[in-house]
Amino acid sequence: MSKDKFQKQSDSIKDSSTVSPEHDRRRLLKNTVAIPIIMTLSSSVAAQVARTSNLVTPIENLDVAAKNTNGDLLCVHPGPDGSVDVVNERPVDLGTLPSVTVDSADSADLQASACQREGGILISATAYASLSGKGVLPDSSIL
Amino acid sequence: MSSKTSWRSVNFSSLHIEEWNGEYTVFHPESGKTHFLNQMGFQILVDLHSRPLSAISVDEICQNLMNQFQLQSDTTFSDQVSKTLHRFDELGLIEQVK
User: Fold this and answer.
1) Does B98 fall in a domain?
2) What is the pLDDT of residues B16-33, one digit of tens each?
3) For residue A46, is pLDDT > 60?
4) What is d(CA A69, CA B60) in angstroms, rounded to the nearest whole number?
5) A79 and A121 Cβ atoms separated by less than 8 Å
6) Omega into B29 within 30° of 0, i.e. cis?
7) What pLDDT is attached to residue A88?
8) Domain housing B17
9) How far is A24 from chain B (nearest CA, A)?
10) Is residue B1 in a domain?
11) What ipTM did this prediction achieve?
12) B38, B68, B73: which to substitute to probe chain A, counting the most A Cβ within 10 Å?
């Protein structure tokens, strides 16, 4: 085997080990001609994707939940065009105009309960930062 | 699975089909589902649609595919096609004719 050929094979192996699952699925669909392939996107997923891209997954772990600079939990409420049923629908579509409330209760547990009672959700600090960076949610430092 | 079962297309004209460089997205309005098919998967739907007045057997579908994709005869292939046809049936894209 020539050096060039060996190098090409090594590169090919290296490339195949670093591809994402999405890339793998795409490659399977595109390159597997010898058998028929069908993959289905369920309607519920399609509907979620079709609404807005402001999809978040509610969390229950208060340690990683988004908080303001005082350490109070940020309770996120979907906008009018977002999800209504935040209990059964995961992930939640926040819509285009979500809002944020901060409860003044002393403990995080009480703040989380108040949030749930009011129909809001807790999201991770990372998700919050991503959405505030897009201008969808207000900066946590001003709340 | 019986190779004697025949199949026919169901309302092919209602499907919203887009080709993406040899791959196909097929939106089925009745179920609200979108399916991703490779070329062979889509070819099965086209073959069934091309004969709207008569059902096509699995053997005939396999033969058409082997001719179009230049494949060798293989029982595994026939099983794969048969499974795909039953999957299409479950999704409401085609139906069995007995």
Assistant:
1) no
2) 888 887 888 888 888 878
3) no
4) 69
5) no
6) no
7) 57
8) 6-93
9) 14
10) no
11) 0.79
12) B38
